[in-house]
Amino acid sequence: MKSIKNHLSLIIALLSILFSMQIFIIVDRSIDSYKEKLANNYSVVVVSQKRISDKNMIGINKIILSVKELTPDSVIKRLNTDMDSRNIELLKLTLPKFYKLNLKYYPSPKEIKKLTKDLLAKKSIIKVEDFSLNHDATYKLLLLFKGVVSVFAISIFIVTTLLIFKELKIWQYKHNERMSIMGLFGAPIWLRSAVLFRLSIVDAFIASVLVFGLFTYIASSKFILEQFSNIGISVVLFDSIDDFALLLAVAMILSVLLASLIVLGHKEEV
Question: Which of 83, 109, 130 is the last residue of a domain?
């Protein structure tokens, strides 16, 4: 019974680390997907005194994906003016050229400033509307959300790692007499510590399998998928190959590393 409890405590500790890791991966993917959606809806409006070819406009900055010239009719329509048709025709002749720029991805505030600076450096461009106030607020909100999740995940990782280290240390003390006897007969340290390493490897594998089952269920949950659909983004919640391989590797490396530190510490005491 005590052996089962010891296994459970180690498995639960590893499970919490792997769970928080996968949650962070999901959040990171969600933010990237949402940024892609924002990039599709976000654009920069440029006003130029003369016509600029699409090729020249795209060459101004590497994040410009495409250029669309706004027709005079669409610009005048946005003004909501009640002018008669004759004055409208005259206005069309005097209007500068308006361009809508679509970007390759959702840029940072620093990239927006550079884009605006590069555009205004071209003599014919007289105005750039980058909607920086709304953009900066949205971008900072995304960074804040990601930062909070990162701090939460790191805190869980540190605390749980200490718990795993303590649990493995307890197992070492329980087998200390057997390890000492084996040492007297000349058994190498890796053989004396085989039980400890076997414990860490088996429990790491069990924790990884449990996380695999948990997130496979979450990834197929209609409720969860509907929530992401309502936001308008599509996210891979769990990749059964890549994500599982990553979580298994982290669990194995962490467990074996902590067990190795305990074994080395025991060697020094002897």
Answer: 130
